[in-house]
Structures are given as structure tokens and as C-alpha cells.
Amino acid sequence: MSNTGHDTHSHTHGASVEAAHGSHDASHDAAHIAAHVGAYVKVGLGLLVLTGVTVGLSYVDFGTREMNIIVGMLVAALKAGLVAFIFMHLNGEKITIWRFLIMTTIFVMGLFFLTYLFHADPISGTSHSTH
């Protein structure tokens, strides 16, 4: 029974301390949220600009089809990075998440490389072969 009385006292004291500092925490939280919203708006506008850049680059000939694809993929990777870092909050994650992200990126790059190898030297007898 005495523990219950002690718990009630500590909760009451904790609530009074919270009430005394509540206005400071609320203004700090509002400023913190406003800073995040500002960053989200800036990144959103940046993504709109980069989308315009992507559309504009689609009308530019970089010499070969492969170079056009590489330039488009670089802009797309930049946009994906912005979304991942800011909107998905990867910029504050632990090292384990980064390790998985790095390994996934290496795997995807390997798949792109295998696709490149296939197009550079297709298997004879397939519909894509020129032999």
C-alpha cells in the first residue's frame, strides 16, 4: 500500500515539473517542427526543379543512347537520394541501416552491369542477338 502512495506522489511531482516547463517545450517543439517543414518544402521544390531538369534533358542528345540513359539515371539517383535522406529520415539512422543500404546499392549496380554485359554481347539465338 505504501508503494502506491509513493508512486502517486512522484507522478504528481512529475506533472507539476512538466507544467512548469511545458510552455518552453511547446515553443521549442514548434520551432523544431517549423525547421523540419522548411526543409521538406525546400527539398520538395528541389525535386520539382530536378523533375524539370529531367524533362529538359530528355530533349538533349548526349551522343549515344547509353549516355542519355546514364545522364537520366544520375538525375534520378540524385532525386532518390534526396527522398531517402530527407523524407525517409536516413540521414539520422544507425550504421546497420547504412550497411544494408550500401549492400543493396552494390547489388543493384551489379544487376545494371549484368544488363549492360548482355546488351554489349548478347547470347546468340536470342531475340536480341544481332549475330
Shape: elongated
Report the span from N to C terminus.
89 Å
* Average pLDDT score: 78
Number of domains: 2
In quaternary terms, these chains amount to single chain
The percentage helix is over 70%
Largest sheet: none
SSE topology string: HHH
Fraction of residues in β-strands: under 5%
User: How does the helix and strand content classify structurally?
Assistant: mainly alpha
Summarize the structure.
80% of the residues lie in helices and 0% in strands. The radius of gyration is 27 Å and the shape is elongated.
Folded structure, characterized:
This protein is mostly helical and 131 residues long. The chain folds into 2 domains: 2-92; 93-131, no CATH class. 80% of the residues lie in helices and 0% in strands. The chain has 3 helices and no strands. The longest helix is centred in the N-terminal third of the chain and has 56 residues, at 2-57. The N and C termini lie far apart (89 Å). The model has no long low-confidence stretch (mean pLDDT 78).
Quick tags:
mainly alpha, 2 domains, 3 helices, 80% helix, 0% strand, elongated
Q: Strands, helices and their partners?
A:
Blueprint: H1 2-57, H2 65-87, H3 95-120
Helix pairs in contact: 1-2
